[in-house]
Specification:
By secondary structure, the protein is an alpha/beta fold. The chain has two domains: 250 residues, Rossmann fold, CATH 3.40.50; 85 residues. Helix content is 46%, strand content 16%. The chain contains eleven helices and nine strands. A nine-stranded mixed sheet has the order 2-1-3-4-9-8-7-5-6. Helix 2 links the parallel strand 1 and strand 2. Helix 9 packs parallel to helix 11. The longest helix is centred in the C-terminal third of the chain and has 58 residues. The radius of gyration is 32 Å and the shape is elongated. The termini are far apart. The N terminus is likely disordered.
């Protein structure tokens, strides 16, 4: 009886959290640190249909610390329930002391209650790591900050050669191993990285071969590159470097967003893609669609400035946008093949629409050029005619009579 009552109470306690983090629909992601408009990570999550992002820029912000504190006041959730509603929290180089101790505790407790999370470069920064070490938030992440602080002089190394090696444990889901064999630069030179020491119970998903060799590791010559663990009801990750480096370098690692999204999917209980190439292509097509859409709107603005009627173009644009909403619904349901086909169809329609908009723009410009030509030509002809009459034919001149003096 006692056991049954305890189980019932545990179920009741878990029910609100499970309701907040359902395994369907968009994933609410709270992004802090280097997440302003100048960073690629901002574009990443604005274009990702699976994600509902909330940006709180809190590193490298024009205006300095005062502006960061303003962003935190304006954009960070005002209640714990607002933080708890976030399915995943990204901390990328965040200056953590820009957040109040209450804010920091809310992020910690949200992970404890079921949110996922990721922090970058081990201790976030070579400058602000003491604040991170003192924060309650770091306790929710798998990197052993206390062990690292014992070797503070050796926490960060730069300009080192390293090789990234994926863990081959067959019991692990293919969060990262599905990228083996892809066109990714796994060997990097002159690379800045942070040392990672996993907490007890953490899982290593990838290793660094080179710097910090043989420290707190079971793999000879290597130290962890990417780790995760379960904290309360949440799953969190620590990566060796900033998201603005290898993870979002389109040359070294064009699959960086796909890797981070896999971590988010895994932490939030979603299914990993069976074919990452299809998902990668869809994300590329989404960015292509947005770019083409902006080009069409630029043509519309330009043509309307010259008096062209572009209402038919805008109406057709709305129809094509509705088609992409269908593609987003298919994507959210992880029907990737159908979503890709719909996006490709929408892109083809947008290409045709762009050609139509260009023709309307050209027609408007022809009339502008014709009116200008007639105006200039008419003015020139009128001026020439007046000049001919006045200076050559002197048609408007009257003959002047000669007077002379007559003697009486």
């Amino acid at each position: 009886m006692v056991r049954a009552l305890a189980a019932l109470l545990a179920l009741i306690a878990l029910t609100p959290c499970m309701g907040l983090h359902e395994k369907g629909g968009k994933i609410k992601v709270l992004l802090t640190g280097r997440v302003g408009e100048g960073h690629l990570i901002h574009t990443w999550f604005l274009n990702e249909p699976l994600v509902d992002p909330l940006f709180v820029p809190s590193r490298d912000v024009p205006g300095g610390d005062d502006q960061i504190r303003r962003f935190v006041r304006v954009y960070f959730p005002r209640t714990y329930e607002g933080v708890q509603a976030q399915d995943f929290i990204i901390i990328d180089g965040t200056i953590i002391n820009m957040f109040t101790t209450t804010n920091q505790k809310w992020m910690h407790d949200a992970i404890l209650d079921g949110s996922g999370g990721l922090n970058s470069r081990s201790l976030l920064s070579g400058i602000y790591y003491p604040e991170w070490a003192a924060s309650v938030t770091q306790k929710a992440f798998p990197n052993d900050v206390e062990a690292l602080m014992a070797h503070a002089a050796d926490i960060f190394r730069s300009n080192r050669e390293l090789e990234i090696i994926l863990e081959d444990n067959p019991d692990l889901p293919p969060v990262l191993t599905m990228f083996r064999g892809k066109k990714i630069q796994w060997h990097l030179t002159g690379y800045s990285c942070g040392h990672i020491i996993p907490r007890q119970g953490a899982i290593v998903w990838a290793w660094i071969k080179g710097p910090f060799a043989d420290r707190a590791t079971v793999k000879p010559g290597c130290t962890p590159h990417t780790i995760s663990w379960t904290y309360g009801l949440g799953k969190t990750w620590t990566i060796h470097d900033r998201l603005v480096n290898w993870w979002e370098d389109p040359v070294a690692n064009p699959y960086g967003l796909d890797m981070v999204m896999n971590m988010i999917l895994y932490s939030t209980g979603r299914n990993l893609p069976d074919d990452v190439e299809i998902v990668h292509e869809i994300r590329s097509r989404i960015i292509e669609f947005r770019t083409r859409q902006m080009m069409v709107l630029a043509v519309v603005d330009f043509a309307e400035a010259f008096g062209a009627n572009m209402q038919s173009i805008l109406k057709r644009m709305g129809e094509i946008t509705d088609k992409t909403k269908l593609a987003q619904e298919q994507y959210l349901l992880q029907d990737y093949l159908l979503a890709r086909a719909t996006y490709l169809d929408a892109i083809d329609d947008l290409a045709d629409l762009n050609a139509m908009a260009m023709r309307k723009k050209d027609q408007a410009m022809i009339w502008v050029y014709l009116i200008q030509w007639l105006s200039v030509s008419g003015t020139s002809m009128l001026a020439g005619s007046i000049l001919w009459m006045l200076m050559v034919r002197r048609k408007l001149y009257r003959q002047v009579k000669v007077t002379r003096l007559v003697h009486s």
